[in-house]
């Protein structure tokens, strides 16, 4: 296989794919995905992508304000301005690339409302917007002759020499190869799998964040973790199915164990307060009532409307024996999103020249302490396009040069011990769920550090499981350390 590329992109979610498509066609690009090409948080996104397309009833300034309010004003204002002013063009470009956003009869985008937005501005494809975006971008990526997409290929190590990035990649065959590139984009997604209960897909183990950290790149605000208030509370599986914010956006009520609405006791924005507020209110209400049973109720709406607007959620709930047109939906908060990540500038550049990070693994500062709903797909496309634009300019201006370097193959001396991942998840769930427990965090960080140091010893059999366990140890360590030092 070819081993030298202009750009290697670690990740084939919205950020990786859109970034690849914005790179100049003269550049040789490799996109790597850890498992199948459609397994990512992007593919799971339901609600939609936020952008101001209705300038009569909405404005960029309002989108900026909503983003800042949701983020507790801890956002980077310049990044927010970039996101909101450039976002509409990228969203229109997604439509040109084949994303089938739902339209009104007059051909304008059908806009929905979600928590924290003061205007309806969410473009969507029913309740499976992420899949619609990923599927459309994959078609275009496969059409492009300069882009190679390799699935089931795990980036295990990353190193930079003077002119070149070298990635140790585990191929589906089990073979370990060193691949080289002039530019490297980390677009490896979030960290949800460090928790016992998360809405995130199996790939979300923070591998890219770990590699960047090990290279000395600053990581910022990794403890800014978002807990979504309304994941489906099936209490059986670790991957909790999300009941999108847009269900509340379309009018669903949040009820306590007695079947009563309670958000008026906590926030005047009621069910549509930002996610952190609703999650905290649920935890308070659970203490007050002594019960962790909560429900969403949208049964008062027309059943045909519900089935047509939320086909994915409807079908998933049906499989669990719940008909959302007649039954209340059991919900509870769940880990959902990471606001912090690899520190980047407004062009997605890290402190290492040629190394970029975009999407959920990055920290652009747009989200502050709490992401506004549907701003993350937007961040993924806006900032990956900006990364591509800088790379295009730099790559075409300078001749390609590749340094020699090969990772030595790992000769396995020991296997991954059983139970590390479970232990890390239990520590995180205990130390930091919705609100931190500082005593548990102080205690937990010691054990997590031990596990991290153990997995850093050379000689572990190089498998996806090993790489992911090591990443989870790093991610948990950084989060807990930030928490106790804050
Ligand atoms: C259930 C759910 C619903 C959501 N709904 C919305 C929504 O409605 N609107 C919104 O804006 N946001 C939503 N989000 C958040 C949003 O989907 C994500 O933040 C965003 O899609 C992240 O995109 P990404 O490209 O950064 O990462 P991902 O889409 O997660 O892609 C990561 C990629 O990195 C690859 N990768 C990881 N590690 C390695 C490795 N070691 N080697 C090789 N490849 C690797 C993976 O294989 C994958 O291809 C939702 C998230 C979830 C989980």
UniProtKB/TrEMBL annotation:
Pathway where this protein functions? Cofactor biosynthesis; NAD(+) biosynthesis; iminoaspartate from L-aspartate (oxidase route): step 1/1
Q: Which domain of life is it from?
A: Bacteria
InterPro entries annotated for this entry? FAD-dep_OxRdtase_2_FAD-bd, FAD/NAD-bd_sf, NadB, Succ_DH/fumarate_Rdtase_cat_sf
Question: Which reaction is this enzyme known to catalyze?
Answer: L-aspartate + O2 = iminosuccinate + H2O2
Which positions are tagged coiled coil?
A: none
Show the NCBIfam families listed in the entry.
nadB
| Family classification | Belongs to the FAD-dependent oxidoreductase 2 family. NadB subfamily.
Protein's name according to its UniProt entry: L-aspartate oxidase
Q: Which organism is it from?
A: Merdimmobilis hominis
